[in-house]
Amino acid sequence: MASRRRRQWRSLLLALFTVPAFVVSSGSAQILLPEAPSYSASVPMLTSRDKFNLFLRRASSQDILVGTTFDAGWAQLMNDWPGYGQGMQGFGKRWGALIANQEARSFFGTFLLPSLFHQDPRYFRLGAGQPFSVRLAHALSRVAVTRKDDGTNTFNSSLVLSTVIVKSLSNAYYPQQERGFSHTMDRVEGSLLGSAQGYVIREFLPDIIRMCRKHESKWLKRAERKLLFSRQFDPEAYPELTAVTKKELEERANHD
After folding, report:
1. Residue 53 and residue 44: Cα distance in Å, rounded?
2. What angle do CA 218, 223, 224 make, to 5 degrees?
3. pTM for this model (two decimals)
């Protein structure tokens, strides 16, 4: 239990300093499908193909590799999952188990189950203009509530079921002493708590970035425009990118 709590807080701290940045290079321009669009924005519905492409982007994103490597190193340092042993072999087993968890959860939770249940795997922000408590409650509630393809709310069966499936599958490669129903339910609980923490970050991080930007020097602002993460979490600050993104999505919707 204690090691699981340490991993949850470690993942939260890592997420605060390692901002996800996934983009698709398309020759000249880089087209971006926002990971956390606003409810107030007109966002096209995701097709099954879009959900599969989103899964591929998440699966190949740099923050997954960085976060997994960090978690594996920390787990080895704290001797989590002692059944894996130490040394490079132990690190490799921990890294393999963690990356398997990440990729399987992304496949089931981003593509397969959302396609079957007609749910949108993205997080939708309330954004500025709402009280802090309302936004916090909204972010935490997204573990149980999600948006359907038609825009209405429904139970987040994609997230809950994918979490149960992945944590059950992990019994096939976790150390013997980490297997069983009790350990599986502990992992499900920890994973859902981590999802809630991630939603809170997605809800408030754009506001934190904009707040920090107000006090930036000119040379820092110029340097920031070259960073992919600021384009993802605050696309309004880059109207030329937003225009290209909207145009691309509209053309694809008309084509479909």
Report:
1. 15
2. 95
3. 0.72
